[in-house]
């Protein structure tokens, strides 16, 4: 079995002969990139597969709107052994968030809301919210009134007083779990009012806490557009951009392209995941999660990211105005916060994108002005407007950050820029 798998993986690391249909291609030299450095990038990630650290992945680098590097590595699934195809379908988790943000800002451009509108204007359950203060002796939560209302801008920059319910164990997170707000087995219209009735973890605007805020944004899209969230995305973003494999689940005729997802044990290797956070993406969910519910392919996500990098257009299709993209990719955090983690990570946060402010604090691998986000299963994309680069890395392995593939990819791409 090991010999068979090793042979399959060796074949799968041979550079693909064909690009996904319809993608603009250039040689590295034509867009000012080093072919030798991009070959080093390929070798670097091939080693992850050869060493058994990853089952498979893809890497894509585009510059000046053209793809100079698109490689596939390893197997679609370890069980089946099929070589990773270019059109493999990945669980992108939180890389759903920028797509949701774009959808909401399309409605902003139509005058449907203002960024500093209170969320309660559109979701009444967010009015008169209370903020967690302490835990009483009987275990109940002691609260105080919110100093101000949560705004749409707060939702988009994660300063809304919300939390996630699964990544921390605060009393508010525990309350989310007790109220079944993290099971995602109910429609957005039922879920959002329940969340609005929960105490906030902190006063609006007083902290940056990664949260369920983008799922609330998904419901806002429904309220403001009058369409189900998934239909809006399909009609207004996916179809116009040619994102043919991006959806909230994988239909039966495409499940043979869904990648396997694995847990990493650095001592025993890869194993089928047992994470409670993993949903069955072959079944249409009741809860259309704007925060982490989509699946996509490398090419599809590149189309989305390139549209953003182009200032809101791709192949003659306009999704957003350039000034809207500029607003989304600009740090929106209050000055008192000085960025995520009080500036210690060198990052600010725009409207559903993280923004690099201090490359040195970020680890020396990013560029000032770069904006990006990643997914729980170690996917990542970024847009570097200074170098006109869009890059995507896709894999499905847990836990998040188990390997520094994101930082390594950034460094290798930046090293490849020669002109």
Q: What's the structural blueprint in terms of helices and strands?
A:
Blueprint: H1 2-12, H2 35-50, E1 56-63, E2 66-74, E3 90-91, H3 96-109, E4 130-135, E5 141-145, H4 152-157, H5 171-178, H6 188-196, H7 213-225, H8 229-241, E6 262-265, E7 269-272, E8 295-296, H9 298-309, E9 313-314, E10 317-318, H10 322-328, E11 347-349, E12 354-356, E13 371-374, E14 380-384, E15 389-394, E16 397-398, H11 405-415
Parallel strand pairs: 6-16
Antiparallel strand pairs: 1-2, 1-15, 3-8, 4-5, 6-7, 9-10, 11-12, 12-13, 13-14, 14-15
If you had to describe this structure to a student in words, what would you say it looks like?
This protein is α+β, with helices and mostly antiparallel strands and 419 residues long. The chain has helices at 2-12, 35-50, 96-109, 152-157, 171-178, 188-196, 213-225, 229-241, 298-309, 322-328, 405-415; strands at residues 56-63, 66-74, 90-91, 130-135, 141-145, 262-265, 269-272, 295-296, 313-314, 317-318, 347-349, 354-356, 371-374, 380-384, 389-394, 397-398. Helix 3 (96-109) runs parallel beside helix 7. The N and C termini lie far apart (46 Å). 47% of the residues are buried.
């Amino acid at each position: 079995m090991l010999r068979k798998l090793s042979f399959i993986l060796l074949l799968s690391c041979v550079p693909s002969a064909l690009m996904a249909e319809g993608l603009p291609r250039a040689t590295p030299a034509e867009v000012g990139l080093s072919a030798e450095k991009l070959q080093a990038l390929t070798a670097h990630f091939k080693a992850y597969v050869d060493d058994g650290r990853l089952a498979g992945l893809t890497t894509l680098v585009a510059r000046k709107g053209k793809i100079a590097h698109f490689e596939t590595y390893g197997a679609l699934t370890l069980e089946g052994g099929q070589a990773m195809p270019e059109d493999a379908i990945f669980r992108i988790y939180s890389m759903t968030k920028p797509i949701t943000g774009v959808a909401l800002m399309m409605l902003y451009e139509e005058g449907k809301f203002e960024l500093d509108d209170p969320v309660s204007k559109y979701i009444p359950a967010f009015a008169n919210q209370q903020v967690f203060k302490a835990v009483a002796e009987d275990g109940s939560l002691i609260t105080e009134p919110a100093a101000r209302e949560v705004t749409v801008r707060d939702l988009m920059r994660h300063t809304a007083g919300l939390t996630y319910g699964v990544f921390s164990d605060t009393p508010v997170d525990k309350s989310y779990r007790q109220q079944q707000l993290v099971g995602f087995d109910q429609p957005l219209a039922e879920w959002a009012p329940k969340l609005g009735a929960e105490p906030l973890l902190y006063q609006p605007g007083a902290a940056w806490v990664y949260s369920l805020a983008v799922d609330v944004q998904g419901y806002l899209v429904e309220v403001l557009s009058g369409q189900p969230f998934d239909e809006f995305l399909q009609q207004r973003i996916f179809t116009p951009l040619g994102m043919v494999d991006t959806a909230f689940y994988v239909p039966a005729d495409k499940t043979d392209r869904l990648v396997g997802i694995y847990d990493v044990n650095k001592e025993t290797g890869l194993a089928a995941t047992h994470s409670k956070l993993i949903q069955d993406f072959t079944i249409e969910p009741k809860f259309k999660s704007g925060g982490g519910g989509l699946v996509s392919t490398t090419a599809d996500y590149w189309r989305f990211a390139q549209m953003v990098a182009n200032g809101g257009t791709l192949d003659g299709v306009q999704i957003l105005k350039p000034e809207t993209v500029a607003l989304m990719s600009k740090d929106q955090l209050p000055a008192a916060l000085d960025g995520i983690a009080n500036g210690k990570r060198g990052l600010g946060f725009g409207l559903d994108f993280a923004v690099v402010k201090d490359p040195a604090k970020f680890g020396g691998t990013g560029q000032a002005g770069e904006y990006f986000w990643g997914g729980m299963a170690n996917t990542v994309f970024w847009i570097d407007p200074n170098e006109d680069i869009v890059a995507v890395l896709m894999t499905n392995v847990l836990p998040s950050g188990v390997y520094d593939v994101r930082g390594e990819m950034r460094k290798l791409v930046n090293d490849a820029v020669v002109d």
